[in-house]
Amino acid sequence: MLIRRPDDIPSSEITPEGLYQNRRAFIGTAGTLALGALVAPANMGAAERQKDDITPEKDATTYNNFYEFGTSKEDPAENAKDFRATPWTVNVEGLVKNPRPYDINELLGRLTVYDRTYRMRCVEAWSMVIPWQGIQLRDIINRLEPLPSAKFVEFTTLFDPRRMPGQRSAVLPWPYKEGLRMDEAMHPLTLFATGMYGKPLPNQNGAPLRLVVPWKYGFKGIKSIVKIRFTEAMPNTTWSDANPREYGFYANVNPAVDHPRWSQAKERRIGEFLKRNTLPFNGYADQVASLYAGMDLRKFY
User: Fold this and answer.
1) Measuring CA to CA, how many Å separate 252 from each of 7, 45, 68, 214?
2) pTM of the model
3) Which distant-in-sequence residues (6+ apart) come within 8 Å of 139 by Cβ?
């Protein structure tokens, strides 16, 4: 559904203008606010576009996978109510010019905040459409100045079982880790989200900082990030470590490659009764398929 290019549509068409006036409150010292960004594939027909409505905010904030706060979809909203996301420090490590802790405002300050409405496809075959606000990851990476030998970037979630009660269970190997190839991280669609629906990012959705990679399954969207590490070797990731047969490093949305326990050909948009067809790369193939030219996407799932 790439209806228009990202900078052709004003933010006011996505989220009420009044909400956008509050953005400075959640991004600290961040500066210029970029207009618009409804990002979707160019080759989708009008009928399909009409169905791609923004998911109601209530659904997007109460139906979540965030195992750090519990394994049911309702647990994060309930168990993260008292989570404090300020102050917040992100440790930058590895193959980078200045590895050290960064206060979140120092890390993001004066970088452009974008509005991006992206389709989100969970590996469990449900989906949403969410209006995010955040910083392009490539802008942050450029600020950090990784060394030429850096080929991957690894992200780590806060590990604090006192504040994240789901971590008291060994359901996953904690802390949660994810990673991207450097070219994936530098792609302009890849976002560090700091808000959604024109408001600060809710705790249950990964406050204060989460990764959004719209062409990949949702579990790549690591939340409450406290560490960024640049590496030469592909990093281990939590779900790949927990069950490598079912969860690969790349996790690109691919309707032609089934999950070992269910089909990925269709998805259920939250709020809809009938299932719809899943699109390759979640509908962003025009923008990102070239990143994987020549790769066997069944082997590198």
Assistant:
1) 25, 23, 23, 9
2) 0.86
3) 111, 112
